[in-house]
Design goal:
- The protein is mainly β.
- 0% of the residues lie in helices and 58% in strands.
- The protein has one domain.
- A 5-stranded antiparallel β-sheet has the order 1-2-3-4-5, with no helix packed on it.
- The model has no long low-confidence stretch (mean pLDDT 88).
Length: 86
């Protein structure tokens, strides 16, 4: 599948994040809504984002995709994981 790009677009309100996401791969794209909690906002870096991604649509190999993805992100770091196509 090669390189995978996660794009988040949204709003930060003191300790919450809401918006949209897209995951783009060489075989298709997933997109939908994202919402979650921001931890360690007032503490020393890094902030941590605990996000739930709700898949609303897909293209290519993901055309009939649905469900949710849980993602934890440390601010300033890269995200690692595995995307599989059944």
């Amino acid at each position: 599948m090669g390189s995978v790009t996660l794009q988040l677009s949204g709003c930060v309100e003191p300790t919450t994040y809401t918006g949209t996401f897209s995951i783009t791969t060489s075989v298709g794209t997933l997109s939908g809504d994202v919402a979650g909690t921001i931890l360690n906002v007032l503490g020393p870096p890094p902030m941590e984002f605990e996000l739930g991604l709700s898949v609303l649509s897909g293209t290519g190999a993901f055309a009939d995709a649905s469900g949710t993805l849980d993602v934890n992100i440390l601010a300033g770091s890269s995200v690692t994981g595995t995307v599989t196509v059944p």
